[in-house]
Design a protein that fits this description.
With 529 residues, the protein is mostly helical. Helices cover 62% and strands 3% of the residues. It has one domain. The longest helix has 35 residues. The radius of gyration is 25 Å and the shape is globular.
Length: 529
């Protein structure tokens, strides 16, 4: 079996020896620390009261910067030691792999361009606000044809945050694409009796270096999916129990300054809609992971197909909790996204199991009915009242007023924007007498257009398109189409919700969105050449 991708990257291109194939100790330490920081970030983000307060946001951003430093350290070790790690990007090359490499480089260029855009806006301050008079003091030396900011301290803070998220994206991708020692040994030698003859033949026919049993996930992707799913399900369970208890304290510990009633909160989040947005990002991943493990269980040699025969059954109650929780939260937007997502997930799973036995398809339908029953029993009464209020309220809870003022801001600063993070400061000068000051637009698409301008906003959209389409040409990790469809469902739901709320202004939500994007950036269609 070929071991392409295992050799060193030194100038001599010699064939590998046992010593060369060993992972350097320093590189192994960087990988282990990266894994630990990733797990810490996933667990910390939602439980630190949604990471909405300054201390928690700084901790999460520092974790992202640490990941970036570890990634740079691994790059330096690869260069200095001539070490080429075994990765799931190994392939026979060709046009599809070449296009994938170009897309990756294009995404790296967009990342650097957006960060440079933020730095320029902070350095090229257009004005600063006088806290005594409450008026802008304009900088006559500002270059108006370059990105600029009307609140450079806020722009610097946003720049650090976006740098942290960029480090998190690329470090997570690099770690996920690396093979574990067990997987490297399997590539070098396929022990007799490890797999069945039929599976061994499929391994020979698969792309070079990809020696997994068809349907089996890489170890690192498997572990991080377990952490995401278990953490989200525990979060959903806690949020439901907290709602049923009637307490107005987050995690039964802290009374927030805003949203002091139990029906406006959900779990550790002071704003129920933010909790729903986080859980709507998590449950499609949980459902897709269950589908993958179920398929893997059926392909394993010598394992009887029976109820409880694999760990994937643990994900069933996890998925039920995380799917029902957004509806129980009584967030109107969260319930709408969850409802559309549940219907779409039913269609995906039924299509993926079209050749399965009837009892499998019937079980899927019964399972989804259980989700709807649980969410309806615990949350429909309050949600129904809020839906009626929405029909009778033409102002959309004050959003119409914010949208009108924000559109005037966009007209005045259309090309280069007002600077990342500067919306709250500039909005004070666009509200009418008697109107409430707002920190967010409640429309992240509009807010990004205002703060980054049309130029920066186009870079953001191109980045999303690049992540979403790379799998078409990728030589990364093979996954079945249903997992990919559910991952898309997770990301698209958050992007749609961002049109009517502010999920991308909450660190824990954008953190999980970035992690899901990193996973999508690593995978490709199952069986693609």
């Amino acid at each position: 079996m070929s071991t392409r991708g295992q050799h060193t990257s030194g100038p001599s291109r010699r064939s590998p020896t046992g010593a060369q194939l060993r992972t350097p100790v320093s590189y192994k330490i960087c990988d282990h620390v990266t894994e630990g920081v990733l797990y810490f970030s996933i667990l910390f983000a939602p439980w630190a009261f949604g990471t909405t307060k300054a201390p928690a946001t700084w901790i999460l951003d520092i974790a992202g910067l640490v990941l970036g430093a570890l990634l740079v350290g691994k790059w330096v070790l690869r260069w200095r030691l001539g070490y080429s790690p075994s990765r799931w990007l190994d392939s026979q090359g060709g046009g599809r792999a070449a296009v994938a490499q170009k897309v990756t480089w294009f995404m790296a260029f967009l990342t650097l361009t957006l960060l440079l855009y933020c730095v320029l806006a902070a350095l090229n301050a257009r004005a600063s606000i006088d806290l005594v008079t409450g008026r802008f003091v304009y900088n006559p030396h500002a270059i108006l044809w370059l990105p600029h900011s009307y609140d450079y301290p806020a722009t610097w803070r946003s720049t650090v945050h976006y740098l942290s998220m960029a480090c998190f994206l690329w470090a997570a991708r690099d770690w996920l694409l690396g093979r574990t020692s067990r997987e490297r040994r399997f590539v070098l030698a396929d022990p007799v009796g490890t797999v069945s003859p039929s599976v061994r033949e499929s391994l020979k026919a698969s792309s070079e270096g990809d020696s997994r049993v068809p349907g089996e996930l890489p170890d690192r992707l498997r572990r991080i999916l377990w952490v995401i799913c278990i953490n989200a399900s525990v979060l959903a369970l806690e949020a439901i129990l907290q709602r049923l208890s009637g307490t107005g304290k987050l995690l039964w510990l802290v009374q927030p300054y805003w949203n002091t009633t139990e029906d406006s909160q959900f779990g550790p989040y002071a704003y129920r809609s933010n909790a729903a947005q986080y859980l709507n990002l998590a449950w499609p991943l949980c459902l897709g992971f269950w589908s993958l493990l179920r398929r893997e269980n059926r392909l394993r040699v010598g394992l009887r197909s029976r109820v409880g025969g694999s760990a994937h059954v643990v994900l069933l109650p996890c998925a039920v909790l995380t799917m029902a929780a957004p509806i129980i939260s009584t967030s109107r937007g969260g319930a709408l996204i969850a409802g559309v997502g549940i219907v779409s997930a039913i269609a995906v799973l039924l299509a993926a199991n079209v050749r399965s036995a009837r009892w499998v398809r019937a079980g899927i339908m019964i399972w989804f009915l259980a989700v709807l029953s649980l969410s309806g029993y615990l949350g429909w009464q309050r949600l129904n009242l809020r839906l009626h209020e929405m029909v009778q309220d033409d102002s959309m809870s004050g959003r119409v007023e914010i949208y009108e003022n924000s559109r005037r801001m966009l007209q005045d600063h259309k090309v280069l924007g007002i600077g990342p993070g500067a919306f709250a400061t500039v909005y004070k000068f666009y509200r009418k007498p008697g109107q409430v000051w707002q920190a967010w637009v409640h429309d992240d698409w509009l807010e990004f257009a205002i703060t980054f301008g049309v130029v920066g906003f186009c870079f953001i959209v191109l980045g999303l398109v690049g992540i979403a389409t790379r799998w078409l040409a990728s030589d990364g990790i093979h996954v079945p189409w249903d997992f990919m469809a559910l991952l898309y469902l997770s990301l698209l739901g958050c992007l749609f919700h961002a049109k009517f709320d502010f999920p991308f202004q909450v660190h824990s939500i954008i953190h999980l969105f970035t992690l899901n994007a990193a996973i999508l950036f690593c995978i490709r269609r199952h069986g693609a050449p």
